[in-house]
Write a structure and sequence with these properties.
The protein has about 350 residues and is of the alpha/beta class. The chain contains 12 helices and 13 strands.
Length: about 350
């Protein structure tokens, strides 16, 4: 029996690791037009007609496996548990790659990226070289249309793992919030368990987690290159400076949601490149280090970090936990997060 269980677990891990190269199993069914292209996404309700009952939109972003349908279900589960189904629109975008298009014989109009390039906002391979960040821009512009969502009050963009990476980078560079702000719609971010973060200068944590000038720069020359730092920003960020990006980022309503058990330095999906390793040995440490870095640079930082007890690297577990639901649907303050069972820093 033990051998059978071990074999099943090995096969499951092998399938998960192979999935990015074999194409995702399911393509979600809804589409967002962006110029002559389309982005794939899943919607909890048809947004082609007015929905005066909708007051919140939850945009939940998958990780490297591109399993948007799985994250969509997690978003709905969390929404139902929060008692918010009646007034929440759940949206799960799907960032496809070439293997997905080939496996499912998808039309050329669907946006797709090379590997995991979408995590850093890189341009699509086709049909247009649009940044993955442009997908978020278009999505937020659609949500800002008052003829469709006349009573929308808040948009929450949440991502786990690779999704946490793209959400954190979009928070740094994103340009879509202006459309929401013009309509008086609040925007919040929830960044959960990413492998790495975008730093604003050449400091990285030492062994005690304190930010210091990075001592191994000569052996890791790309440690400060985008998506890990501010050098070589993508074309989407043309004309913007690291200083202005940091000032804007520090003022965002953003929660870092970290699994207290996401501490495996050998996790198969953990970024083990030197630029990521420079941020800490595993995801929990990297998140704590980044938050400490921001606190040192921005005294009085209003962003929150919540450690979720008993949760490792599991998107469903972290978003559907009491602390996760509080981060997604609560007021976003520290007292509310503590009520959700998390440890707030």
């Amino acid at each position: 029996m033990r051998r059978l269980l071990a074999l099943c677990l090995a096969l499951a891990w092998g399938s998960a690791l192979a999935a990015p190269h074999e194409g995702v199993a399911r393509i979600v069914s809804d589409r967002l037009p962006i110029g002559q292209a389309q982005a794939a996404l899943q919607l909890s309700t048809d947004w082609d007609r007015p929905h005066p009952e909708i007051r919140r939109a939850l945009v939940i972003v998958h990780g490297r496996l591109r399993n948007a349908a799985t994250y969509f279900r997690s978003g709905q589960t969390a929404t139902a548990a929060a008692g918010a189904m009646a007034d929440t629109l759940v949206i799960a975008p799907q960032f496809l790659n070439e293997t997905d298009v080939q496996r499912h014989r998808l039309p050329d109009t669907l946006l797709r990226w090379q590997g995991n390039a979408w995590m850093g906002g890189e341009p699509a391979l086709g049909p247009q070289p649009l940044s993955s960040f442009a997908v978020f821009d278009a999505l937020l512009a659609r949500l800002a249309e008052r003829r469709l969502l006349p009573n929308l009050q808040e948009v929450v963009i949440a991502g786990h793992s690779g999704g946490g990476q793209v959400v954190q980078r979009y928070a740094v560079l994103g340009q879509g919030e202006q459309a929401l702000a013009a309509q008086g719609i609040r925007l919040r971010y929830v960044v959960a368990n990413p492998s790495s973060y975008a730093y604003f200068d050449a400091h990285r944590p030492d062994a005690q987690g304190q930010p210091v000038p990075f001592a191994a720069a000569s052996s890791c020359p790309d440690f400060d290159t985008w998506k890990y730092g501010m050098q070589g920003l993508p074309a989407y960020a043309a004309g913007r400076t690291a200083a202005s990006l940091e000032d804007h980022y520090a003022g965002l309503d953003l929660t870092y949601l970290l699994g207290a058990e996401d501490t495996n330095p050998n996790h198969p999906a953990l970024d083990k490149g030197c630029a990521a390793e420079a941020q800490g040995p595993y995801r929990l440490a990297r998140g704590l280090n980044y938050y400490r870095y921001l606190q040192g640079r921005h005294p009085g930082l209003r962003q929150a970090l919540i450690e979720v007890p008993g949760v490792g690297h599991n998107g469903d577990a972290i978003f559907t936990s009491p602390a996760g639901r509080q981060a997604l649907f609560g007021a976003g303050d520290q007292a509310s997060a503590r009520q959700g069972g998390g440890r707030v820093q």
